[in-house]
Each structure stands twice: as structure tokens, then as C-alpha cells.
Amino acid sequence: MTDFKQNYFQRRIKDRGPRSNNRISSPEVQVIGSDGENLGVISTNEAISMARNQGLDLIEIAPNAKPPVCKIMDMGKYKYDAQKKANLAKKKQKIIALKEIKMRPVTETHDYEFKVKNAKKFIAKGDKVKFTIRFKGRELQHSHLGNELMTKIKEDMKEIGKVELHPKFDGKQMIMVIQPL
After folding, report:
1. Strand, coil or helix: what is 93?
2. CATH superfamily of 17-85
3. Of 3 and 72, which is predicted with more confidence?
4. Measured distance CA(129)–CA(161) in Å, rounded
């Protein structure tokens, strides 16, 4: 009973990074030297001893290859470079926000122009814009007004953006999404 509790409540240790040195399970590995030179297929123990003689580690680069590809290099430097690459990729990614503009089928021209002007600003920044036309009461019987308004929006936005989600009804509202060109 105590063995069960020990195993059940024992913390699981996460693998952090690639396997290195004695954690490499394959009997033979393709080895790349510290200078980038291909040393060929060598037994794992021999490759580990070569790395230790140079004061470095044997790191598994491509574990799914047959045989696995390992490189002789410093583990700290490898982790540092991987972290730097990850930070650079994170810095370069662009987060696209979805801005929503709500209207009614009876929206007056000045309000319409103001909202379209704001939508153009959002698209110029690189964000997507979701146009929502909400129908109240008997306005739902005049859905053609919503279709006309959506067509007008498409025409006004065609030089700066393209329609990602064509106008469709979702309950008592009509939705359209426009994304930057």
C-alpha cells in the first residue's frame, strides 16, 4: 500500500530541453564535432567520452533521425541560444485584435461615415474589424436594409481591406468581418 502512495503522489519530472550525455538512449549516434565537422556514426559511450575530453557535452539535436544526430557543444550555450531564438520569435510576432463596430439598419449618414472612418483607422493599424448590425423589434422584417448597409460598407472598405466573413445573420444581428489587405 505504501509503494502505491509513494508512486501515486510522487512528482513527475518534466524533461527540460534536449537529451544530453548519459540521458541519450540510442546505442549509436551520428556525431557532429564542436567545429561543425561530421564525425560519422559512433557508439554513444565513445561520443560522450570524446565530448568530455573537450570539456563539452553531447547534445541530441535530431532525436527522430536514424541514427539520432548529436552535436558536441556546451549545454549552457545551447540553452542560451535557444532562449534567444524564442525571445526573438516572440518579439517579431504580430497580435491581431478584432475591433467591433455596432450599427443599426437606420443609422444616419453622418454616424455611418464616422464609424467607417474609425474602421479604416483600425484596419490601417493591422486589426480586423467586425461590423455588427443589430435589429430591434419589427426591423427584423426589413433585413434588406441590413443587406444594403453591409453592401455599402463593403464598397467603402474595398480599397483598404477585404471581406473575411461575408454578411450573415446571427440571431437578431447581422455580422461581417473585414481584414487588412
Report:
1. coil
2. Translation initiation factor 3 (IF-3), N-terminal domain (3.10.20.80)
3. 72
4. 9
